[in-house]
Amino acid sequence: MGRLQDKVAVITGASSGIGGKTMELFGREGAKVVGTARNEAKLNEHLEVVTSAGGEGIVVPADLEDDSSPDRVVAAALDAYGTIDILVNNAGVGWQYGIDNPGTMAGVHEASVENWRAIIGGVDLEGYFTMIHAVLPKMLEAGRGSIVNMSSMAGITGLYDAHAYTAAKGAILNLGRSMAITYCKQGVRTNTICPGFIDTPMIAPVVGAFDDPAVASALCPMGRPGQPEEIANAALFLASDEASYVNGAMLVVDGGCTARSFPG
C-alpha cells in the first residue's frame, strides 16, 4: 500500500476494463485519481470502489474524440488537486468497436478512408496525443511526471486485417520512445504497455474463443486471457517511483503470445 501516496493520476478509459481496474488500484495505493471516459455512471462505480477503501478521486465524463475534452479533464484535475503526476493513456477501441462500426477493423482493401480516420484520427491515436498535449506542460513545469501509454501486442506484431488498429498501436509505441528521450532530462518518464488478449468488453468477441481449450492454446501459450488487474499492476509499477530508471520501455504483458514465432 502507498506506492503512489499523494500523487495525482489521470486515467483515461476508466469506465471499464483495464482503465477501471487501474483507477481502483491506484486509489488503493494512495493516489488521488482522476478518471475520465464517456460513461459517467460506470466511472462512478469505480470511484465508489476507491472511496470505499478510503481513497480519494473525481470523475470527469469526457469524449476524447472532442478536441476540447483533454483540456477540460486537465483543468478539472488541477482545480481539484493542483498538479498532475501521472497520466495513464488507456482509452481506445477494439474488436467490439469493429462489430458496431463495420470496416474499422478491416483490411486496407475493405476499409474506407472514413474507417481509417475513425481509428487513427479518433481515440486510438489522436486521443493519446491530445491528452499528452494537455498534460505534459504541467509536468514539465513541475519538473516531474510519469506517462504510461497503453499500446497492444498488435503494436509489435501484425494482425490479420485490423490494419488501422495495428498502425495506431505501433505509432503509440514509437511515440512513447520518442517522448522518453526528449523529456526525461526534464523529469518526465514515458513508458508503454503492450497487453495481449485481456478479458475486457473491448475484445469480448475474441475472448469468447478461449472457451475452447484447443483454440485457447493456439491463441496464447498460457491458454487463457489476461485479467484487467494484471495490466493495472504493470501500470502501477511504471507509474511509481520504483520505476525511476525505467524510461522508453515496452512492457509486454501477453501471456507469451509474442514470444513464439508460430501457433502451437
How would you portray this structure in words?
- By secondary structure, the protein is α/β, with parallel strands linked by helices.
- The protein has helices at 17-28, 40-52, 69-81, 95-100, 113-120, 126-142, 163-183, 204-207, 213-219, 228-239; strands at residues 8-12, 32-37, 56-61, 86-89, 145-150, 188-195, 250-253.
- It has a single domain, classed as Rossmann fold (3-Layer(aba) Sandwich), CATH 3.40.50.
- The chain is built from 10 helices and 7 strands.
- It has a 7-stranded parallel beta sheet with strand order 3-2-1-4-5-6-7, with helices on both faces.
- α1 packs parallel to α2, α1 (17-28) crosses α10 and α5 packs parallel to α7.
- The longest helix has 21 residues, at 163-183.
- Its EC number is 1.1.1.385.
Which geometry do the CA atoms define? globular
Helical element count?
10
Please outline the major beta sheet: 7 strands, parallel
Low-confidence stretches: none
**Strand line-up across the major sheet:** 3-2-1-4-5-6-7
CATH architecture: 3-Layer(aba) Sandwich
Question: Could you give the count of β-strands?
Answer: 7
Please state the structural category.
alpha/beta
Keywords: Oxidoreductase
Organism: Capillimicrobium parvum
InterPro entries: NAD(P)-bd_dom_sf, Sc_DH/Rdtase_CS, SDR, SDR_fam
Protein name: Dihydroanticapsin 7-dehydrogenase
